[in-house]
Amino acid sequence: MTPARRVVTLPPSLRGPDALRFAADARSRGADVLEVRTDLHPAEAVDAAALSDILELLVSERGTPLPPAWVAAARWVDRDVVHAGDLAAPAGKLLASHHAERPLSTEEALRLWDVPLPPGSLVKHIEPLGQESRERISVLVETQARLRARFGDGRVTVLAMGPTALPVRAVLARRNVLDYVAVGGDWKAAPGQRLLADAVRETRALTREDPHPSPLPEGEGASTGRLAILGTSIAHSRSPRIHLQPFDRIDIPEDAPVESLVDALLPHYRGFAITSPFKIRLARHTGSPLDAINTLVRRRDRWESFNTDTAGARTVLERLGAQEVFVLGDGGASAAIRAVGSETGRQLRFLRRAEISGPLSGSGIWTWPDRITPPDALRFEGARVAVIAYGAPARRIATEITRRGGTPLLLGAAWFIAQARQQRALWETAS
């Protein structure tokens, strides 16, 4: 089966030469199609012909009629089967779409598509995810299968929408003709889109293994099923670069119902890397004896939880080389540090933000994510402070430590690699 074509949407802030540069950059990153929508751009702001010279163009009618110049330059013309005045499009260009306002049963969805479509038309069906449940995901998978049976392979795209829809979209993408993804940064065309880089990485890995990759079967065994990192503000995560593919970045709000989400995804994912802020919540949800966990492994009809952060904590404490260590924060990462500290006889002092009142000296570990604002009272007197984040967040934290009088030690990569090795071994045991 041919992998889905990766579609990126032109952001509304980009016009003229900036739009052309965006299209060229998206193509260099692995995008196949550029979408331009009438609700995001006025006709005069877009040079459709010039854009179509860079990427295949998908023009979408959203409220405002499509300019003729856009239609002429487009590879596909997206018109809504309910709200469009008609479904007219040049031969072979129609992408007929439907955006449901509520979750539908498969039979309800199929009735919406009892419409005559020109030969060769593509079909796009979109629904809000609604409740995070196995039943809901199964309905969307069944809707996709039934639409493919009706209209044929290579013609159907089914998408879920919502703040926790990303993993469902990733599952559906394996059987879709189009995969709507985000280039990165703060703007996404729709909630639930995964990153272009992750979609490209997955396709390349699958193509290396099999020049003609086929969809995953419904019953996924120990060596199949998706992997993912699950957290908040994780666009910087390096996990997809080092773990087996497919590996998704599931970036969801801090208050999302993560417990019901992981249970709903049990048939489709064989493991998760859990990061802030869900380590403690999912430890409780899975009945773990640990205070916090960072790894879930599928065991047929349940999740088994582990904390491989202890391997990372052990590495960082060894690098610090101190017997007395203060720890900034008392969340999921701190649980691993506490466990290793008790094993090795180190004296650890855990400090929450409200408990900091004077300068800190000696050796310490900063566990707060960079999205958390440190207290104004935080100051260091020559303290060596290990940073267990990595990438851009680690650099921002290091700058903050220096500004407050400390010396940062960037040990996030060492922590990450140590715990990731153990995670990978555990995922290989999934059933």
Model description:
This is Shikimate dehydrogenase. InterPro entries: Aminoacid_DH-like_N_sf, Shikimate_DH_fam. It comes from Archangium lansingense. By secondary structure, the protein is α/β, with parallel strands linked by helices. Among the domains are: 5-195, Alpha-Beta Barrel (TIM Barrel), CATH 3.20.20; 310-416, 3-Layer(aba) Sandwich (Rossmann fold), CATH 3.40.50.720. The chain has helices spanning 16-29, 48-52, 68-73, 106-112, 134-151, 166-173, 196-209, 239-242, 258-264, 279-285, 309-320, 332-344, 391-403, 412-427, and strands at 5-9, 33-37, 56-60, 76-80, 94-99, 122-128, 156-161, 178-180, 226-231, 247-251, 269-274, 295-299, 302-306, 324-328, 347-351, 363-366, 384-387, 407-410. Strands 7-6-5-4-3-2-1-8 form an eight-stranded parallel beta sheet. Helix 4 runs parallel beside helix 5 and helix 11 packs antiparallel against helix 14. The chain is elongated, with a radius of gyration of 24 Å.
